[in-house]
Amino acid sequence: MDLCHVPATREKGWYLALMAPNVKGPNYAWLDPSRLYCHPQGLKDCLADLLQPFQGDAVDMVAGIDAMGFILGAAAAATLQKGFLAIRKAGHLCVQTAAQPYTDYSGREKVMEVRTDAISPGLRILLVDQWVETGGTMRAAIELVERLGGVVAGVAAICIENSEGGKWIQEHYKCSHCVPPRLQPRFDQHQ
Question: Phosphoribosyltransferase domain: which residues (predicted)?
């Protein structure tokens, strides 16, 4: 798809066609959203769809998850006129942190960190990532926020798959994603 083209009718999720499929093999995510982020109207419409369910909700800060969640999360924070907090993979923050081990979508054991001075008790945080596949990464972010006394105001991602972990997150937290119901099975099966 042309990075300047804007369709005459823009239904929810039209911008999903901007994402490029994986050509490098199983150690990589199956879709790359960076072309979506390059398209001004696509990014704008994606953010509008993601944030619409949270209109009127109390959100004090947006937190994005390392690394592609930083792009979408920072854009969401700017749109909402809120601060942005980076939740990082271990070893990148030079300040006091809280850490949480997790297993990512590829089955690799990792550790996530967040600075301890950014979350105060009762702070309402919207968690943003590009994708929730197995839910392991997002659950680690949720655990970090809640351990520090924050409240998860919601979870937003381009796609939340209907995996066991994705379903658990959707059952326990207010969630938003961009995949229309008719396309969800294709995204769950990575087609």
Answer: 51-178
